[in-house]
Amino acid sequence: MLIPIEQLPRVALERMNKVHEKEIEIMNELYQLLQEYEKGEVSIEDIDRAFNEFLEDVKYHFSSEQEMMEQYNFFAYPMHRGEHDMVLGQLQNLQKNWEKNKNPEIIKSYLENQFLPWLINHIQTMDTVTAHFLSHFIRE
Ligand SMILES: [Fe+2]
Ligand SMILES: [Fe+2]
Questions:
Q1: From the CA of 96, how far away is ligand 2's center (Å)?
Q2: Which CATH superfamily includes the segment(s) 18-134?
Q3: Closest-lying ligand to the alpha carbon of 125?
Q4: Of the candidates 88, 86, 96, 107, which has an alpha carbon nearest to the alpha carbon of residue 30?
Q5: Closest of 21, 18, 12 to residue 131, by C-alpha
Q6: What is the domain partition of the chain in residue ranges?
Q7: Each residue's pLDDT tens digit in the chain (140 positions)?
Q8: CB-proximal residues (5 Å) to ion ligand 1
Q9: Which ligand has the minimum distance to the alpha carbon of residue 20?
Q10: Ligand 2 centre from 70 Cα, in Å?
Q11: Are the C-beta atoms of residues 61 and 31 closer than 8 Å to each other?
Q12: Which residues surround ligand 2, an ion (CB under 5 A)?
Protein backbone atom coordinates (compact mmCIF):
# COMPACT_ATOMS: atom_id res chain seq x y z
CA MET A 1 0.00 0.00 0.00
CA LEU A 2 1.33 3.40 -0.92
CA ILE A 3 -0.97 5.38 1.40
CA PRO A 4 -3.93 4.46 3.64
CA ILE A 5 -7.17 6.14 2.51
CA GLU A 6 -7.58 7.77 5.97
CA GLN A 7 -4.39 9.76 5.42
CA LEU A 8 -5.77 11.52 2.38
CA PRO A 9 -6.65 15.22 2.95
CA ARG A 10 -10.39 15.87 2.68
CA VAL A 11 -12.15 18.75 0.94
CA ALA A 12 -15.54 20.46 1.40
CA LEU A 13 -17.27 18.57 -1.41
CA GLU A 14 -18.10 14.94 -0.71
CA ARG A 15 -18.27 13.94 -4.37
CA MET A 16 -14.67 15.09 -4.83
CA ASN A 17 -13.60 13.10 -1.76
CA LYS A 18 -15.24 10.00 -3.24
CA VAL A 19 -13.32 10.41 -6.50
CA HIS A 20 -10.07 10.84 -4.54
CA GLU A 21 -10.75 7.75 -2.43
CA LYS A 22 -11.39 5.68 -5.54
CA GLU A 23 -8.15 6.94 -7.06
CA ILE A 24 -6.17 5.97 -3.97
CA GLU A 25 -7.74 2.51 -4.08
CA ILE A 26 -6.76 2.03 -7.72
CA MET A 27 -3.28 3.46 -7.12
CA ASN A 28 -2.73 1.17 -4.11
CA GLU A 29 -3.81 -1.85 -6.16
CA LEU A 30 -1.32 -0.92 -8.87
CA TYR A 31 1.39 -0.37 -6.26
CA GLN A 32 0.65 -3.74 -4.67
CA LEU A 33 1.08 -5.45 -8.05
CA LEU A 34 4.36 -3.59 -8.62
CA GLN A 35 5.65 -4.97 -5.31
CA GLU A 36 4.43 -8.47 -6.15
CA TYR A 37 6.14 -8.23 -9.52
CA GLU A 38 9.45 -7.74 -7.74
CA LYS A 39 8.87 -11.06 -5.99
CA GLY A 40 7.97 -12.75 -9.27
CA GLU A 41 4.35 -13.26 -8.27
CA VAL A 42 2.61 -11.38 -11.10
CA SER A 43 3.23 -10.79 -14.80
CA ILE A 44 3.84 -7.73 -16.97
CA GLU A 45 0.30 -8.19 -18.33
CA ASP A 46 -1.10 -7.78 -14.81
CA ILE A 47 0.84 -4.52 -14.39
CA ASP A 48 -0.27 -3.39 -17.84
CA ARG A 49 -3.93 -3.86 -16.96
CA ALA A 50 -3.66 -2.08 -13.59
CA PHE A 51 -1.58 0.77 -15.05
CA ASN A 52 -4.16 1.42 -17.77
CA GLU A 53 -6.96 1.38 -15.22
CA PHE A 54 -5.02 3.94 -13.17
CA LEU A 55 -4.52 6.20 -16.22
CA GLU A 56 -8.22 6.10 -17.07
CA ASP A 57 -9.11 6.91 -13.49
CA VAL A 58 -6.81 9.94 -13.34
CA LYS A 59 -8.37 11.28 -16.55
CA TYR A 60 -11.85 10.80 -15.06
CA HIS A 61 -10.76 12.46 -11.79
CA PHE A 62 -9.44 15.58 -13.55
CA SER A 63 -12.25 15.94 -16.09
CA SER A 64 -14.94 15.57 -13.40
CA GLU A 65 -13.45 18.51 -11.50
CA GLN A 66 -12.98 20.56 -14.66
CA GLU A 67 -16.62 20.09 -15.66
CA MET A 68 -17.79 21.51 -12.33
CA MET A 69 -15.34 24.41 -12.47
CA GLU A 70 -16.55 25.33 -15.94
CA GLN A 71 -20.19 25.00 -15.01
CA TYR A 72 -19.88 27.34 -12.01
CA ASN A 73 -17.27 29.69 -13.48
CA PHE A 74 -14.62 29.02 -10.89
CA PHE A 75 -12.23 32.02 -10.85
CA ALA A 76 -9.00 29.97 -10.78
CA TYR A 77 -10.07 27.39 -13.35
CA PRO A 78 -7.10 27.98 -15.76
CA MET A 79 -4.63 27.61 -12.89
CA HIS A 80 -6.24 24.44 -11.57
CA ARG A 81 -6.51 22.97 -15.05
CA GLY A 82 -2.86 23.86 -15.67
CA GLU A 83 -1.81 21.57 -12.80
CA HIS A 84 -3.97 18.74 -14.15
CA ASP A 85 -2.52 19.19 -17.64
CA MET A 86 1.03 19.15 -16.31
CA VAL A 87 0.43 15.77 -14.65
CA LEU A 88 -1.40 14.39 -17.70
CA GLY A 89 1.72 15.29 -19.71
CA GLN A 90 3.94 13.40 -17.26
CA LEU A 91 1.61 10.39 -17.41
CA GLN A 92 1.65 10.46 -21.20
CA ASN A 93 5.46 10.30 -21.15
CA LEU A 94 5.36 7.55 -18.55
CA GLN A 95 2.92 5.56 -20.69
CA LYS A 96 5.15 5.94 -23.79
CA ASN A 97 8.13 4.83 -21.73
CA TRP A 98 6.12 1.87 -20.41
CA GLU A 99 5.02 0.77 -23.91
CA LYS A 100 8.64 0.86 -25.02
CA ASN A 101 10.52 -0.58 -22.03
CA LYS A 102 7.91 -2.37 -19.86
CA ASN A 103 9.94 -1.46 -16.79
CA PRO A 104 7.70 -1.62 -13.66
CA GLU A 105 10.39 0.07 -11.55
CA ILE A 106 9.85 3.34 -13.45
CA ILE A 107 6.11 3.35 -12.69
CA LYS A 108 6.79 2.49 -9.06
CA SER A 109 9.26 5.31 -8.54
CA TYR A 110 7.00 7.77 -10.37
CA LEU A 111 4.12 6.93 -7.99
CA GLU A 112 6.31 7.19 -4.90
CA ASN A 113 8.35 10.26 -5.75
CA GLN A 114 6.13 12.34 -8.01
CA PHE A 115 2.49 11.40 -8.27
CA LEU A 116 1.64 10.84 -4.60
CA PRO A 117 3.45 13.92 -3.20
CA TRP A 118 1.92 16.00 -6.00
CA LEU A 119 -1.58 14.64 -5.37
CA ILE A 120 -1.49 15.37 -1.64
CA ASN A 121 -0.24 18.90 -2.24
CA HIS A 122 -2.80 19.43 -5.03
CA ILE A 123 -5.69 18.30 -2.81
CA GLN A 124 -4.50 20.56 0.03
CA THR A 125 -4.29 23.60 -2.24
CA MET A 126 -6.16 23.68 -5.58
CA ASP A 127 -8.82 21.10 -4.73
CA THR A 128 -9.44 22.59 -1.29
CA VAL A 129 -10.06 26.09 -2.66
CA THR A 130 -12.14 24.71 -5.54
CA ALA A 131 -14.29 22.51 -3.28
CA HIS A 132 -14.90 25.41 -0.92
CA PHE A 133 -16.06 27.59 -3.82
CA LEU A 134 -18.24 24.86 -5.35
CA SER A 135 -19.83 23.98 -2.00
CA HIS A 136 -21.70 27.31 -2.16
CA PHE A 137 -23.49 26.12 -5.31
CA ILE A 138 -23.70 22.35 -5.03
CA ARG A 139 -25.91 20.77 -2.37
CA GLU A 140 -25.13 17.21 -1.40
FE1 LIG B 1 -8.89 16.20 -7.21
FE1 LIG C 1 -7.77 18.91 -9.05
A1: 23
A2: Hemerythrin-like (1.20.120.50)
A3: 2
A4: 107
A5: 12
A6: 18-134
A7: 999 999 999 999 999 999 999 999 999 999 999 999 999 999 999 999 999 999 999 999 999 999 999 999 999 999 999 999 999 999 999 999 999 999 999 999 999 999 999 999 999 999 999 999 999 999 88
A8: 127
A9: 1
A10: 13
A11: no
A12: 65, 127
